[in-house]
Amino acid sequence: MAQRSANKSRLGALPWIAPALVMILVFVVWPAFEMLRTSFQEVGSTGAVKGWAGFDNFSTLLKNPDLPNVLIRTLIWVLGVVFFTMIISLPVAQLLNAKYPGRKVVRWAVIIPWAASVVMSSTIWKWILDPYYGVLNKILIDLNFYKEPVDFLANPKQSFVWLMIVAVFVSIPFTSFVILAGLATIPDDIVESSTVDGATAWKGYRFIKFPLIKPALLVAMAINLINIFNAFPIIWVITAGGPGYETDTTTTLGYKISFRDQDIGQSASMASLNLIIILIFIGIFLKVSKSQERNS
Q1: Measuring CA to CA, which residue among 118, 56, 90 is closest to residue 183?
Q2: Terminal CA-to-CA distance of the chain, rounded, Å?
Q3: C-alpha–C-alpha distance, residues 250 and 83, integer Å
Q4: 280, 283, 271, 253: which is closest to 65 by C-alpha?
Q5: Tens digits of per-residue pLDDT, 203-217?
Q6: pLDDT, tens digit, 9 for 90 and up, residues 221-275
Q7: Quick check: bond before 91 cis, omega within 30?
Q8: Is-contact 186 213, C-beta < 8 A?
Q9: Are 116 and 169 in contact (CB under 8 A)?
Q10: Which secondary-structure segment (H or E) carries 41?
Q11: Which of 18, 41, 113, 118 qualifies as a FRET site for 93, CA 20 to 30 Å off?
Q12: Nearest-angstrom CA–CA distance, 150 and 167
């Protein structure tokens, strides 16, 4: 009897969740299935399927001499950007949560880089870093740091660092507001009680606020992992992954394989590899978050 009522309640909820399920099937599951199917096919440059390729596309991809460096660079890209984004967003969220005149204006100013198009923000940064017309060169020359303009994007390692800086800049607003939402849920009486008990601002933050905003931190970290791993506009607009493949991640490499090399099958195998990598990232993240919840 209890089993029947439970089944009825589940079926009763079906009309409400059906639209979401249909959207997931149409926009997530089906494209992912087509991507995996294409990775095992031989596809011509016109898009015509020539036949079954088996694991040939994956074999060709793994033989790509640039792939190992791209994978290492992708790992540095994701972990580096997410780490610095979280570290910087914590004090920014504290600033946004504090009470002072003009707080609304500060919040609006902080959210602009996230609200604006990523392509537009990347284009602005590309002009900022321009060796002849860029504002950064102008400031550094006026301050006598340099005597002549410097091309910040000429050296691959230096340009990759700048790409990470831009990615952190674009990611901070959203992350800060997610943490701010966590800070807003902390009851004022808990903070006031800790102050009355003699807790300093640092101890109050470390032992009271920080543990309470951990769920918001985990959400922000998970979303950042996915967004940064799949980030395409920042790299493509500023360096296009160049020179050569020196600033490519797996996302931009897949784009080049598809549209420059006209190898759709191999590009689909690169996209499948990306899916596997992001699932590994999420799996590790969920395992770490569960262990932290148990410890707490």
Answers
A1: 90
A2: 38
A3: 19
A4: 253
A5: 777 777 777 788 888
A6: 888 988 898 889 999 999 988 888 899 999 999 899 888 888 888 888 988 888 8
A7: no
A8: yes
A9: no
A10: strand 41-43
A11: 118
A12: 21
- What is each CA distance from 90 to 1, 19, 85, 157, 175, in whole angstroms? 51, 37, 9, 28, 9
- Extract the tokens encoding 221: 């970290």
Return d(Cα 159, Cα 137) in angstroms, integer: 15
User: What is the largest distance, in Å, between two alpha-carbon atoms of the chain?
Assistant: 84
Could you tell me where the DSSP H helices lie in 63-155? 67-97, 103-115, 118-128, 135-142
For residues 160 and 3, give the distance between their C-alpha atoms in angstroms, rounded to a whole number.
58
Q: How far is CA 282 from the centre of its chain?
A: 12
Tokens of 48: 């015509």
Highest mean pLDDT: which of 183-192, 201-210, 218-227?
218-227
Q: pTM for this structure?
A: 0.84
pLDDT confidence tier of residue 126, bands split at 50, 70 and 90: very high
Place of tokens 């598809």: 258
SS3 assignment, position 222: helix
Could you tell me which residues come within 8 angstroms of residue 36 by beta carbon, excluding any fewer than 6 positions away?
A: 268, 272
